[in-house]
Structure formats: C-alpha cells, structure tokens
Amino acid sequence: MTRKKRADSLTEYRKRQDFSVTPEPHGKLYATERINRFVVHKHSARSLHYDLRLEMDDHLRCWAIPKGPPLRTGVRRLAIPTENHPLEYLGFSGTIPAGKYGAGIVEIWDAGTFELDPQSKPQSELKLIFHGTRLKGPYVLIKTTLGDGSAWLCMKMKKK
Prior knowledge:
Elements: H1 3-9, H2 11-15, E1 37-44, E2 48-56, E3 59-65, E4 76-85, E5 94-96, E6 104-116, E7 125-132, E8 136-143, E9 152-156
Antiparallel strand pairs: 1-2, 1-6, 2-3, 3-4, 4-9, 5-6, 6-7, 7-8, 8-9
C-alpha cells in the first residue's frame, strides 16, 4: 500500500482531532509486516461503549460496540463502523479532553492478534479468530440491512 492511500484512510480521523490539545496519536507508523493485531478500548465518552479496532491495510478498521463484544457463543451485539484510526492506537490509553471529539477516558480492555478467514468479504462479512485475553476463538462481523445499512453485528461463534 502506498503512503497516499494510507493518508486517505485516516482523513476522517484527522479531521475530527485537534492534536495540539488531545493526547491521541496523529498516525505516523506504517506496518512493515502484517501481524493482524487488534485492540478493544473501553471508552467512557458520552456513553460507555467499546471500540473494536482491527489492523488492516496500514491502519485500524474500527467499530463501536455499545454493549461490548460478546463473550458467549450466539450472543449478537450491534457494531457501528467508525472512522479508521492510526496504528499507534493499538497502544493508546488516556483521557481525551472535554469538548473534543470522543472526549472521555479510553482504556485498553483487551488486545492481541487475530486470524482473518480468507473466505471473508471485507465489505460485508469478516470471519475472525481472536487470540486475546478476553476475546478468544471464532467471531464474525456481519454487515446488516438494518436502518441505513451501515450497521454490523458482532457474534462469537462455536469452535469448529
């Protein structure tokens, strides 16, 4: 992936931040090899929610999960896509200042690596196997036709 494409993947994220005020990373790292890392942030903003971030194409693809990722098989949780974030967010925790986009406390709730099933369709269905402390085993993110069609569902699947 070229740096031009990387910059484009973070445009929306950078528009929302004032880096002179917030401790959030700007986004300067580029992946040298694909590791497929993930992080789940517990984000106490206007309302408590969890942000799932997957390392993909030199940035983090992100979803807000209001009730948190499911830990039991068969439980479905709403997952709302958010703007891409820089790779540095894999290790970010801190307080985003009041009055700024995403204001509140961001804590790392879980982190690790994941495997992406080659049969996944990145725009509509992601089959994953998580290797984290809390998220372990097979999961799927599926785009739904609910509302405006941008919502996804996150589900823990049965082990094969």
